[in-house]
Specification:
37% helix; alpha/beta; 262 residues
Length: 262
């Protein structure tokens, strides 16, 4: 989901989150601008040079570059692991559309771990899980925007339609947060793994490398455009900052502190 997608699609939910939160349309992903390295970087607070996930072919037991450190689960530590280690009583969930996301994190750190091949089912399950379990941390992943980019091309009407669909699904999850009476203590972070050019991505162009990041919730500045450089691995660092956790030395991310009210 590129910044162009949000700016040109019908996206009232994300527009409202930006109006009532902080955002940048010029955050950067890591290279290569493909899915596995960037989803990993988002949850690991570091780039491929540290975590070793350099392509979509990466597998925990079949890779070229080992991580610079491994935790007890055999992984470069993710935000899931950091939260679990801090408080094993936390309710932590991961609900994702692309099943390969599931190979990127420590299973023992997550209480609820499931995948669906349909974005509607992802949103339905995430909404139900929030209402029923009131998680301390939940990661929700949609893949249909990427699919539209590959099939129809970035910047096409059908691509913008897929972003509008994502916006509706985000709205459904936000409604569940309200139903669970958690909105006044929930930080919502919206981002993506990469953008694209035409029907592809993986290269070094701004269209592929620049991503949106939106933060909205208590303690976040309203209507504030983040102007300093932000990277995808700063997301994990920001979550750690919110939970007042010291991040692992091997992480290179920095919390997006300018988005927070001092």
């Amino acid at each position: 989901m590129s910044p162009d997608g949000i700016l040109n699609a019908n996206s009232p939910v994300m527009d409202n989150l930006m109006e009532n939160g902080s955002y940048t349309m010029h955050a950067r992903d890591v290279l290569p601008s493909s899915s596995s390295p960037n989803w990993a970087s988002m949850i690991m607070g570091a780039g491929p040079e540290q975590h070793g996930i350099t392509s979509n072919e990466w597998q925990p037991d079949n890779h070229i570059l080992p991580p610079v450190i491994k935790n007890e689960a055999g992984y470069f530590p993710t935000i899931f692991w950091l939260l679990y280690q801090h408080n094993p009583g936390y309710e932590i969930g991961a609900i994702y559309h692309w099943d390969d996301f599931g190979r990127l994190f420590e299973k023992e750190a997550v209480d609820f771990d499931t995948t669906f091949k349909n974005e509607n089912k992802v949103a339905d399950m995430a909404s139900q899980y929030i209402v029923d379990n009131k998680p301390n941390f939940l990661f929700v992943h949609f893949d249909h925007v990427d699919g539209a980019g590959h099939k129809f091309g970035h910047g096409t009407e059908k691509y913008y339609g897929s972003v509008a669909k994502a916006d509706q699904l985000i709205g459904k999850i936000a409604d569940a947060i309200k139903t669970a009476d958690l909105m006044d203590k929930t930080l919502i972070i919206i981002s993506s793994d990469h953008g694209g050019n035409g029907t592809s991505h993986g290269g070094e162009t701004p269209g592929e490398v620049e991503i949106p990041i939106i933060l909205s919730g208590p303690g976040i500045k309203q209507g504030y455009e983040i102007t300093y450089p932000v990277n995808i691995y700063d997301i994990a660092s920001t979550v750690a900052y919110v939970f007042n956790l010291e991040q692992p030395r091997a992480w290179i991310g920095r919390p997006i502190t300018s988005a927070f009210i001092e």
